[in-house]
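hey can u check if this looks right to u? its 284 residues, i copy pasted from the old doc so theres a chance i mangled smth
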Amino acid sequence: MRPRLAIPASILAVLLLAVPAIAGTVTAPDGVVIHYTDQGQGSPALVFVHGWSCDATYWDAQVAHFAAKHRVVVIDLAGHGASGQERKAYTMEAFGADVAAVLAQLDLKDTVLVGHSMGGAVIVEAALAAPDRVLGLVGVDNFQDVGMKLPPEAIDGFVSTFEADFTPRVRAWVGHFFPAGADSALAAGIAADMASAPPAVGLSAMRELLHWFGDRTTERLAQLKVPMMCINADAQPTKVEPIKALVPGFQLRVMAGRGHFVMREDPDGFNRLLGETVGALMAP
């Protein structure tokens, strides 16, 4: 028998990243086709979920980093990226079902879900829809104030400002997500990309997200059977104690001086904190 060749970890990482991601699709319960990519090996699997009017490419720096040691899956939610746009109402529950459908298709049972912005609500719904497939959740710049209540008239008033002129309104709004001194090219690129989203999808998802945060956050977090932690910017302080009351063992890691898109503003710093957070979730 020939002896096995020992491959150094650094070379193994290069070999893993040289293997192209496998693209796939799955049909959500309502018939919409959901696009995803699957790359790398190793447990726990990391499944990344983007935010409002974004797509899977917002996680490119995380895929490149974590696929050396983990199986990494990135998803385009319905209405976003390469996924279908036939849905009538883009609810958080329906988005959660998109993620659960991908987990089932790939038969993942050792998953940490990572959700940015709106993706935080989505991964909560996905964990509730597929409790036997999820080990933990990582929110990224979300859940800063789980006790916040939004009256319907306030939601209607906010969304109506986007209905009047979607593209320029989104571009201006997203510009406020970045702190002074942020990379202007990055900020402009993200604002332009999000402003190019289909208005019907964006308006529906925005309205549904605000209703979820205004009406259902505490109820759904209290129903979780898995731990959750967050990596947030310090631009908006996070009220930790209300989350701990709902999700025992909650931990917060803060990225100082960053804006809403922490994983793109400081990929190296974010990847380090995400590695720590995943380790904490997996600790006995």
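The longest helix spans residues 199-215.
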